Amino acid sequence: MTVMEPSQPSRVEEMTAATAAGAPAAAVAGGPAIGSPEWVATYTLSSRTACRMAQLDLARVEERLFSLEGDLGQYSVPFHSEIPDRFLQLGIAEADLVGTAVGLARRGKIPFVNSFAAFLSFRACEQVRLDVAYHRANVKLVGYYAGLSGGAAACTHSALEDLAIMRALPNMVVLSPADAVETYKATWAAAAHDGPVYLRVGRAETPQVYFGDYDFEIGRAVELVPGDDVALLATGNQMVAEAVAAAARLGKAGIGARVLDLHTVKPLDREAVLAAAATGAVVTIEDHSVLGGLGGAVAELLAQERPVPLIRLGVNDQFCEIVGPYEEMVPYYGLDAPAIAAAALRALELAARRGRDRGRAGSWFDAEGSEP
């Protein structure tokens, strides 16, 4: 039998409500306006740094918040320097890390678990599935070095399957922010959410997508670029920025590409995806395997609700075998703006071919007057 601790009033919820009302979370906490040059100077364009700074800002206003570490650092982490009694370094023991977090959550705390995305989703999968997801424990799992961002660490540290694993777990919310600004806001939203959350974070600095505050809501996509010819549905660090750049390239050719930032992979914004499918052609972009992540989620929805030509961009069914700097790996694996624009053209060609096929079918029906 599952016995849940009663929920308690949260200062985090109050602060998040203030953010949604237009007051930047950082400003509410006494910092610079979120997304501003001053904010970037402090929080950087690294989602990893922004997430850690967000946890510290949260802990300053919410005494129930704890930060747990899986050997990613200690003395270099600002949280440890300022609030050492709520910073727990458990070392290279991911199962123990998750189990400890569940214990804290059951006592009414809000634990953030910080570890490599590959280790949280693989080594600790059983604990995440049974202890966190099954019991709806209020644990926030932060997976760093997601996708190809591990660089030269290669296959052992590259998480190309974590979205698929976490998305398959009942009760788990899965967040994949576009940049450091959105990662900061997603961290606040994760803390305010009552239940399990997996937050996917990259490693290095990536292009800034959001230059000011905005309403971040779990499960609600953000339309960054309007367009009615093709839809580019992107998630994650670097990928959303590449999709925006691809839309600009397509615009020069007279093609209107709608860009959606699907920062929440689960629960998916069904309405936004179905509306985007009205363009008649869809491309999904993710720094993840083409199997089971955003592309899989979108394909499942469109197959049932609105079948249209769909191209899924990601790492093909393979391990990360060629490694190097992240800025070189993105184009190598076909995830940069030129590759996205080319995929959009293929999707448009498929849509046109589909229209021609429908035209031929319509002519046949007109001629024969009955179905085959």
Q: Could you say which structural class the secondary elements and strand pairing correspond to?
A: alpha/beta
Q: Specify the biggest β-sheet.
A: 7 strands, mixed
The total of helices stands at 15
What is the string of SSEs from the N terminus onward? HHHHEHEHEHHEHEHEEEHEEHEHEHH
- The number of distinct structural domains comes to 2
Query: Which fold does the CATH topology of the largest domain refer to?
Result: Rossmann fold
Structural notes for this entry:
The chain is α/β, with parallel strands linked by helices. The chain folds into two domains: 11-200, Rossmann fold; 222-357, Rossmann fold. The chain is 44% helix and 16% strand. The protein has 15 helices and twelve strands. Helix 12 (270-277) packs across helix 13 (294-305).
